[in-house]
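During the no-cost extension, the postdoctoral fellow (Dr. R.K.) reprocessed legacy sequence entries with the updated structure-token encoder. One reprocessed record is reproduced below for audit purposes.
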Amino acid sequence: MKEFWDERYAAETYIYGEEPNDFFARHLSAIKTGRLLLPGEGEGRNAVWAAKQGWLVDAVDYSDVAKTKAAKLAEQHKVSVNYRVSSLETFEPEANAYDAIGLIFVHLLPEERETLHHKLINALRPGGVIILEAFSVKQINKQSGGPKNIRMLYDIDSLARDFASVNAYYFEEETIQLSEGQHHVGEAVVIRLAAIKPL
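Re-encoded structure tokens follow.
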């Protein structure tokens, strides 16, 4: 997995662009700034944008190459991001530490996905918000992005079980037009979730 992402991120350009994910940015903008966790953050587009809005950002990714590119992007925008290289399977976030968590196109196998999602709920402070966008299983035959292993794509029922302990205020499967760098382009079927951890 690490080798795959190091190779993909080795491109000179930012392969998913330099602008934040639309759904993430829209929902994070509605929240008072605080401490933010971004697992699977890649080249730093969401982290740098959030830091510019005043968030204290912790980012995690498998890839050393991604961390280097994220640091370069942060330097260009004169912000700081605390970026750690780690597999998401072994990552152990601090409990009750974050005001928001963004999980943007992070695709894992079912057993790994469920474990990570429960860790992230535990890492949220009461009243904290989790924002998720991921490709649906209906994305499998589309060329606009996402894994080609259907077990790594998501469905509403599985995510509803994963996030049963938080209160969703937005939870939809939608067909959208993606325009994020060179790897997320065209019509795509995504699942979008925004939810609050109960007080």
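The radius of gyration is 15 Å. The mean pLDDT is 94. The remaining legacy entries will be reprocessed before the final report is submitted.
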